[in-house]
Amino acid sequence: EIVMTQSPATLSVSPGGRATLSCNTSQSVSSNLAWFQQKPGQAPRLLIFGASTRATGIPARFSGSGSGTEFTLTISSLQSEDFAVYYCQQYNNWPLYTFGQGTKLEIK
Amino acid sequence: QVQLVQSGAEVKKPGASVKVSCKASGYIFTSYDIHWVRQATGQGLEWMGGMNPNTGNTGCAQKFQGRVTMTRNTSISTAYMELSSLRSEDTAVYYCARVGGPTYDWGQGTLVSVSS
Fold first, then answer.
1. Which residues make beta-bridge pairs with A98?
2. Nearest to A92 by CA among A46, A21, A31
């Protein structure tokens, strides 16, 4: 089973700043990686799939990169609504998917 | 519009089983996978398993093998997830999700509480 490691666990950034979140996988998942945003009391929202493709309606300030075992989600020019918990998920081997443990993005 | 409507909250005793339903509408049920994800209070997302409603093929995380059963009734566009041998650690909100490429639509969640 593929193990996902997200870092950091908590990230403090000022509004208008830039956030860089990391996700590593225990074995290569090619580009079969997605990023989700979750706010309290809500279901997760898909941000990025295929490691770097924004989902429908996702602002351009969200960008994903990486392949193989190392991935990054970058959020530029942070808005107040961006402070949330972010999860990566690999989907390389149907249907055995895995989530990372999450990164909490908080206001500095 | 696409909707996934889950069954209501459940309270179960340790050792019992729970079956959560997920009724889909607004799309062709057999065209997208249905996955199940759970989240304990204050904890992260935990992927449980997934099913192809067209073929009935399923797969689940190692942790749940032998305890989770995913089924569907295509005539009523409904997927089911049954979890057996419940323990207190299974207390969580259980979500179903329609999954396919860039598509990820979620049900509203079902709270399952396990307590003696």
1. A90
2. A31
A9/B contact by beta carbon, under 8 A: no
Contact B62 A53 (CB under 8 A): no
Q: Determine the average pLDDT of the residues in A49-72.
A: 97
Q: Distance, in angstroms, between A46 CA and closest chain B CA? A: 6
Residue B14 pLDDT: 97
Would the CB atoms of A53 and B102 count as touching at under 8 Å? yes
Chains A–B, number of C-beta pairs less than 8 Å apart:
56
SS3 B65: coil
Q: Kindly state the greatest CA–CA separation across chain B.
A: 41
A55-89 in b/e form (b: 16+ CB < 10 A) is: beebeeebbbebeebebbbebeebeeebbbbbbbb
CB B116: neighbour CB atoms within 10 A? 6
Q: Note the pLDDT of residue B102.
A: 81
Structure tokens at B9: 């909250």
pLDDT given for residue A71 in this prediction: 98
Closest chain B residue to the Cα of A52, Cα to Cα = B102
Selected residue of A94, A103, A104 to mutate for chain B interface (largest B Cβ count, 10 A)? A94
Find all residues with CB under 8 Å of A18, minimum gap 6, and list them.
Answer: A74, A75, A76, A77, A78
pLDDT of residue A95: 80
A 10 A CB-CB count for B77 gives 18
